Automatic annotation (TrEMBL):
Span of the signal peptide: none
Source organism phylogeny: Bacteria, Bacillati, Actinomycetota, Actinomycetes, Streptosporangiales
Record-annotated Lipid/polyisoprenoid-binding YceI-like domain positions: 14-187
Protein family (similarity comment): Belongs to the UPF0312 family.
Protein name, per record: Polyisoprenoid-binding protein YceI
InterPro entries cross-referenced by the UniProt entry: Lipid/polyisoprenoid-bd_YceI, TTHA0802/YceI-like_sf
Species of origin: Actinomadura namibiensis
Length: 190
C-alpha cells in the first residue's frame, strides 16, 4: 500500500532511478573556460517515506563511464592521476537526512536538501544536495514516474583528487570546485 507524502502525487515507496532517462553531469573550470562531462553508468534508489524527512537515497556511479567528449582527456581523468578507476571503480552517495529547503519567491517546485555521504577514491565526505521535486505521472509502459533535479558543489581536493598543472602568476590549469547536476526520473516499484 502506498501513502501520500504531502507532495502532489508522490507516494511513499521504493522508487528506482531510470538511467536511460536520467543524467549525472558536472562542470569544472579549465583555464579560462568550463569543461562539461557526465557519467553514463549509474543506479540508484529512493525510499520515499510518508514523512519526507525520513526518506533515503542511495546511488552508485561507475567511474569508468566518465565522458567529457574527449577520449584522451577521459583516459587521463580515469587514470591514477585523478580518479584511479581501476582501484576505485564506484562512487557512492548514501543519504543521512532530508529536510525542507528555504523557498524563495521564484521557486518553481518544492525544494529539499538531501544530506549524505559521498565516497570517491575511498574517501567519504558529507555533501548537501539541493533537490527539486517536479511531479509524478504515468509512463507509456504502465509505470508511475517521478521527476527530480538536484545540484551540489564539491571540492575535488577534499576527495584526494589533487592533480594540477601550474601556470604563470600562481594560477593552475584546473579549478578545485566541481559543480554537479542530477536530472532524475524514478519509477515506483510494483
Amino acid at each position: 500500500m502506498t501513502l501520500e507524502t504531502g507532495l502532489p502525487g508522490l507516494v511513499a515507496g521504493r522508487w528506482t532511478v531510470d538511467p536511460a532517462h536520467s543524467e549525472i553531469t558536472f562542470t569544472i573550470r579549465h583555464l579560462m573556460t568550463t569543461v562539461r562531462g557526465s557519467f553514463t553508468a549509474f543506479s540508484g534508489e529512493i525510499e520515499v517515506a510518508r514523512q519526507v524527512p525520513a526518506s533515503t537515497v542511495r546511488a552508485d556511479i561507475r567511474m569508468a563511464s566518465l565522458d567529457t567528449r574527449n577520449a584522451e582527456r577521459d583516459a587521463h581523468v580515469r587514470s591514477a592521476d585523478f580518479l584511479d578507476v581501476e582501484r576505485f571503480p564506484v562512487m557512492t552517495f548514501t543519504s543521512r537526512g532530508v529536510g525542507r529547503a528555504a523557498i524563495g519567491r521564484r521557486a518553481r517546485a518544492p525544494r529539499y536538501h538531501v544530506d549524505g555521504d559521498l565516497a570517491i577514491k575511498g574517501v567519504s565526505r558529507p555533501v548537501r544536495l539541493l533537490a527539486e521535486y517536479h511531479g509524478v505521472g504515468p509512463d507509456p509502459w504502465g509505470g508511475i514516474r517521478a521527476g527530480f533535479t538536484a545540484t551540489a558543489a564539491i571540492s575535488r581536493g577534499d576527495f584526494g583528487v589533487e592533480f594540477n598543472l601550474p601556470l604563470q602568476g600562481g594560477k593552475v590549469v584546473l579549478g578545485d570546485t566541481i559543480a554537479i547536476q542530477l536530472e532524475i526520473q524514478a519509477v515506483l516499484a510494483a
